[in-house]
Amino acid sequence: MFQSIILAGGCFWCLEAVFQQIKGVTKVVSGYSGGQIPNPSYEQVCTGKTGHAEVVEVAFDTSIISLLEILEIFWHLHDPTTLNRQGNDTGTQYRSAIYYKTQEEYDIIQESIKRLMDSQVYQDKLVTEISPLEVFYPAEEYHQNYFNTHPNQGYCQLVINPKVSKLRKLYFNKLSQSV
After folding, report:
1. For residue 70, which of 135, 118, 3, 119 has the smallest C-alpha distance?
2. Which of 2, 12, 75, 77 has CA 20 to 30 A from 124's CA?
3. What are phi and psi of 29, to 5 degrees?
4. Please, are residues 31 and 53 in contact by the beta-carbon 8 Å criterion?
5. Which residue is catalytic, options 11, 14, 46, 156?
C-alpha cells in the first residue's frame, strides 16, 4: 500500500534530499502548505506573509517503511524545538509542521511524539505544528530534486550535506540501494 505525508522542517531542499535516500520512499515533492493564499510562488512564501511553510510531500510504500519510521527520521533530522527557524533559516515558512489527512495518521503522529518525548532526545519543548492538511501546492520545477541537481551549490554543501551525512550515520540500514 502506498501513503504520503506532508512534512515541514526548515528548507524543503533539506528534507527532500534526506527522504529521497530512504528505502521505500517512492517520491518526494517540494511544495507549500499551511497558508492562506492559493497557488503561492516561492517569492511570496519567502516574505513570510502567506502563512505557508516550505514542505515536502513524502510518498512511500508501507510494505517497506511505515509512517512511524518516516516520522522517526523526520524528528531526528531537524530541530522540532525551534520556533519558525532551522539554523540560519528564519521565518514562519521554516517552521516545523506535520499535515495529516486521516484520523489514523493523526494517531500515529501522536504515538511518534510520545516515543520522541519518552526518548528524551530533546530537552526543550516541541513546537511542531500538527494540523489537518487543507491543500498542498507543489513548488516550482526548479526547486524539485534540488540537492541532486546542484550538489556543489553553497547551501547544498554547507547546510544539506551535514543533514545527509547525519542521515547516513543514524539510518544507514534504511537507505535505498541506489545511495
Report:
1. 3
2. 12
3. -120, 125
4. no
5. 11
**179 within some domain:** no
Indicate if 46 belongs to the active site: no
pLDDT in tens, 105-134: 999 999 999 999 999 999 999 999 999 999
- Continuous segment of H or E residues that includes residue 29: strand 25-33
pTM score of the predicted model: 0.95
| Residue 134: domain span | 2-174
Other residues' Cβ atoms within 10 Å of the Cβ of residue 126: 15
CB count, 10 Å around CB of 73? Answer: 22
Cβ-based neighbour number of residue 96 at 10 Å: 25
Give the count of domains, the chain: 1
pLDDT class of 98 with cuts at 50, 70, 90: very high
CATH number of the domain bearing residue 86: 3.30.1060.10
Strand pairing class (85-86; 96-100): unpaired
CB 70 within 8 A of CB 98: no
Q: Dihedral sign, CA of 132, 58, 69, 156?
A: negative
Residue of 10, 45, 6 lying closest to 29 (CA atoms): 6
H or E stretch including 97?
strand 96-100
